Amino acid sequence: MNFRVPRGTVDLMPGEVEKWQFVEEKAREWCRRYHFFEVRTPLFEQTELFRRGVGETTDIVEKEMYTFEDRGGRSLTLRPEGTAGVVRSFVEKKVYGDPQPTKWYYIGPMYRYERPQAGRQRQFHQFGVEVFGTKEPLLDAEVIDLGYQFYRSLGLKGIRVELNSVGCPDCRPVHREQLVAFLSPRREELCKDCQSRLDRNPMRILDCKNETCQAITEQAPRMVDHLCEDCSPHFEAVKEGLDALRVPYVLNTRLVRGLDYYTQTAFEYIVDGVSGSIGGGGRYNGLVQEVGGPDMPGIGFGLGLERVMLALEHQGVELPLSNEVDCFLVTLGDEAQKRSLSLLQELRQGDCSAERDVQGRKMKAQMKAADRMNARLVAILGEEELLNNQIVVKELATGNQETIQLDKLVEYVRDKRNHG
């Protein structure tokens, strides 16, 4: 039987993995600058967490979750997004009792059963941040800026933010009433999902990707026209904050995001060369309380790393990766080969990457192997060098070589790597 990778998943091979490591390290670097700390939550949670947190009328909960029953009869779900699990951890560990705000980030795989396509897989990866404990609108702008700076630092061009306010429980009822009145006469023209949403959560219709539904809602009542006395100044302050940070944004009054927990600020990142968003987020002031904690506000984002990789590819961005070996040991004779083992250890303990021939090949073949590995230096050790406690070191790029004392090899290689 020939086994293949499951549909909607991919193998990340050497050569590709290094790109992911670079991107992930950039994410960690920017989180350090903004004083965020990493949190790691389980890959699966109780199914009810996502039903309550993400929302039962969302496509994620209705169609896309990987749910299973364990041997104890408990319903568990592979996490389809990161925020609900992070909020559960925040509540369970009673972190809300600590001085606030709490600033966390995560990087890891998520799972949704959807049609695989470029930049979207059934196992996908997200970099996300969450901030708990403050309603300050300028923090919204700061969080948006963090994602924007992350994208820019990778070399992406044409990044912009689509921005909206989805209001709060105080101002949504008026908008909901007008939205239902606007859509009800055309109920039969809506897709089946949106016919159901019209009764349960009509705002979700604005997020539908069906072209007919999009056309019907083109002139639908806008949430931004019904914001309450708290949400309206909050939204204005967020925009002022983005202006101060020089983050480019456009208003998208149809933007509601794909999860029910959002309140007030909602945003997505768009980049030249890739259709759809490459990440997004928003404020979720009721979610902590929804999963059993106190009434405490929160805001965050989730950025799809597969989407980032697709954008880098489409824009032709070359990441500054290096797969060089600092030193390749070429050995001539049995005694030199034995001595090379401890030399390798010394180099590696001295913070140098080092490799040797393990195929018993002749010197010419060993030199070719060093070239294939992009070795910066080749250190040649033969019987005569061993007798004199010396080694010949050659720079492959220039062809220059010199003989040095064997006990100076680590220092020599390190100096060449650091100073050329």
Automatic annotation (TrEMBL):
The keyword ATP-binding applies. Keywords: Aminoacyl-tRNA synthetase, ATP-binding, Cytoplasm, Ligase, Nucleotide-binding, Protein biosynthesis. The keyword rRNA-binding does not apply. This is Histidine--tRNA ligase. The lineage of its organism: Bacteria, Bacillati, Bacillota, Bacilli, Bacillales. Belongs to the class-II aminoacyl-tRNA synthetase family. It is found in: Cytoplasm. It catalyses: tRNA(His) + L-histidine + ATP = L-histidyl-tRNA(His) + AMP + diphosphate + H(+). HAMAP family: His_tRNA_synth. Homodimer. Its EC number is 6.1.1.21. One of its GO terms (molecular function) is histidine-tRNA ligase activity. Gene3D superfamilies: Anticodon-binding domain (3.40.50.800), Bira Bifunctional Protein, Domain 2 (3.30.930.10). Residues 1-320 form the Aminoacyl-transfer RNA synthetases class-II family profile domain. It comes from the Bacteria. InterPro entries: aa-tRNA-synth_II, aa-tRNA-synth_II/BPL/LPL, Anticodon-bd, Anticodon-bd_dom_sf, His-tRNA-ligase, HisRS-like_core, HisRS/HisZ, HisRS_anticodon.
